[in-house]
Amino acid sequence: MSLELGGNAPFIVFDDADLDAAMAGAMASKYRNTGQTCVCANRLLVQAGVYEQFASKLVTAVSRLKVGNGMDAGVEQGPLIDAAALAKVEELVGEALGQGARAMIGGRRHALGGTYYEPTVLRDATAGMRLAQEEMFGPVAPLFRFADEAEAIAIANDTDFGLAGYFYSRDLGRVWRVEGSRYGINEYLDLKYLCMGGTSR
Questions:
Q1: Which residue stretches of 64-145 are H helix?
Q2: Mean pLDDT confidence for 28-38
Q3: What does the pLDDT read at residue 23?
């Protein structure tokens, strides 16, 4: 049996990352299908030394996204799936803004109406905000600042929904430390033995 019960994917940008590559990856991971996939980046963790630079690059890229009917040429962002999805995004963003996050771009319903929501980047997100624990499922990228590798890993792992994770670094030692290996999946598995008898072939 296989169950997919939601995600809260961290997207980690270390200070030695290729920021242009990380920004392109964030755009693909966060804004695909208007943020409505279970493996979309939900929390963008950015090391303090490159936080401002990465945020600026991301905002520039987000500002270029074309929102509208997906049947129209050049459109990259469509509506949210229904009114309930729009309400949840509004609620999570509203709570975050009330707790100290700031919208660098977006942060509200789109002028197109319906269930369209503006592609959004929130800075100064913190672990205490509900959007740090709940799947956004919308075009909103909250940026979390971290100091060092250990803190990044602790924040990334602080979720019950470990479906996916992404990170950018050019330090091979760090890559191995953070990525781990296929054996990490063993924590999520139970080995079972099946013995079948009475079969004719």
A1: 83-98
A2: 95
A3: 97
Active site residue 4: yes
Count, residues in the chain:
201
Instruction: Quote the mean pLDDT of the chain.
Output: 93
Can you read off the two tokens belonging to residue 127? Answer: 């672990």
* Secondary structure (3-state) at 33: helix
Q: Mind listing the domains of the chain with CATH numbers?
A: 9-182 (3.40.309.10)
Q: Provide DSSP, 37-85.
A: STTSEEEEEEEGGGHHHHHHHHHHHHHTPPBS-TTSTT--B---SSHHH
Give yes or no for a contact between 7 and 159, defined as CB atoms under 8 angstroms apart.
no
Q: Is 181 helix (H, G, I), strand (E, B) or coil?
A: coil
Q: Each residue of 48-63: pLDDT tens digit?
A: 999 999 999 999 999 9
Does residue 40 carry a catalytic annotation?
no
- Count other C-beta atoms under 10 Å from residue 45's C-beta: 25
* β-strand partners of 195: none
The token pair that represents 48 in the structure block = 């303090």
> Could you tell me the pLDDT band of residue 72, with boundaries at 50, 70 and 90?
very high
| Cα 166-53-18 angle, rounded to 5 deg | 45
Which residues fall within 8 angstroms of residue 187, CB to CB, at 6 or more apart?
none
